[in-house]
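Take a minute with the sequence and fold tokens given here and flag any structure token that looks odd. Thanks in advance.
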Amino acid sequence: MEVLAFGVQADERPLIERAFEGVARVRCLDVFLDADTAPIAAGYEIVSSSVNADLGAGVLRALAAGGTRMIAQRSTGFNNIDLDVAGQLGLTVSRVSSYSPYSVAEFAWTLAMAVNRRVVRASRRTRDFDFRLDGLMGRDLHGRTAGVVGTGRIGEAFTRIAHGFGMRLLGWDLVPNPACEELGMTYVGKDQLLAEADLVSLHVPLMESTHHLLDAAALRAMKDDAILVNSSRGGLVDTEALVAQLRAGRFTGVGLDVYEAEAGLFFHDRSLEAVDDDTLARLVTFPNVLVTSHQAYYTREAVGQIIAATVRNVADHLAGRRSENTLVPA
């Protein structure tokens, strides 16, 4: 049995190959799974995909026609997979239901602190031996209000760090997290959270109900000097509306590790090409915006846990077992 793994980063390859020893042979590709690359999987019963894979109906049908019977996605989110079509085709689909929440929570704070204290601007200046402080003034976060949108495992980890900063804690979620309440978090409506928070961090999954959770109206409801961080999914934020607010001079800083049109851009080297995404091109020109390449999860601990869970998912499939990671069959 040989597994074909798409979208494997150079750092991940030795970890994946070592983890699959004794379970199955694995072939690692750096190309991402989409309509153009799906034919490569012909003859492989098991395919492993990365977070930005295109697993829409057309790709799933191409995989099934080539003999694929299982898709093991190496991520928690699965908004990129047409689960209904996968079920109709008789495909088994798994994901990684959880991994180190600290990887994402700590990176979200990295973005928040970087834009608050103008770290990127300062670094660029000092490389040119410009040591002026003009335009680098940040502000203390101690005593200010952190608004945590989504208080699951990652949101809770983010909240614990905010508590360490001595911040007032506001949360928004369908179900309150008792651990966050013990830290002093008050659960409020989304509108109140956005209106009162000095720092808003997003930690909810992307689904139909959360698409453009921060639309034009929600962004207008935020404080003019607020900090916004999104390390979850790009589609949570209406990027066009965000650009309009930034153009109006709003927000102290915006840290984005995800972007709603990142597929085909993130995880690729486009430095020698003309990028035709006008929205992203405009976004990265704002001096108070920091965009990174969907790397919040990318720690040794988290990646190791993701790979280990993927190997277990493959072993379960081969043994005819299901687990909490099995999406299809439900």
